[in-house]
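Narrative of activities, Objective 1.

The group set out to show that a structural description can be obtained from nothing but a protein's sequence at a throughput compatible with the screening campaign. Below is one input-output pair from the validation batch, recorded exactly as produced.
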Amino acid sequence: MTFQKQTYELFKPIIAKYFKNLKELELDLRRSRLKTPPEEWVALSLFASIVVFVAAFTFVLIFSLLLSQKLLLVFVISLGIAVVSALFAFLFMYNYPKLTADERKKKIENALPFATLYLAALSRAGLPPNYMFKLLSRFKEYGELSKEAAKISSDTETLGLDITEALTRAIARSPSPTWTELLAGIKTTLTIGGDVGDFLNEKANGFVEGYSRKLQEFSSFLSLLIEIYITLIITGAIFFIIISSVMSSIGAVPVSLLKAANILIVGVGIPMLTAMFIIVAKGVSPLED
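Output recorded for this entry:
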């Protein structure tokens, strides 16, 4: 029996009682390509929260006892931090498939304009749809989109499915509405006997225009973000250092306290805020890594 199944058996009564509707989690797991049943994923989340609770409680308790001998206060603080840490651990673990699916969605939609242009060119050359997806899967530059194309190609070649059936399966596991729309359009065009090349060419033009708008919006947002960073972080830090120097010269605040504050701002505050700005910029960027 695997560790996942053992964990599920341990928490089975709790899951059966409090986690009855797991359809959304099951969909997120499929879209994130995590091959774990939803019940077992909930069990892993509960197990992770317990491990974090024990680790956080032990660490905080030992650290607090070194600073204070008030046992009741130390116990309450340790328990509170451990409970909050365990709750965050469970929520993160439980929502990890959704976060992964959203990341895959972003990567697919960023590569979609260029991949659609490539598919349109292949269709114009007279290649059948199943071979189009096979060629697309070989371009690893398209990242997650190449993996989706590889799965479609595998369904047709390995499982022997018809291309429309393979597209139906791809639509069901797609994390991106835009990719889903494209696959559904290809399937409909094939079903009614339409021209796939014309359809892909039309969709590619729309995707490219949308990608251009995304780049323009990102450029404007990035300019605003840089202005905020310079004004708030750089100028603010310099202003605080100047003010603290004036305050120390008149003896309003102890020099040691001001030195500690300056060290924290320069050594911890600015790097942390800089990292936050980078994460925000990366999160909204339409560009691939």
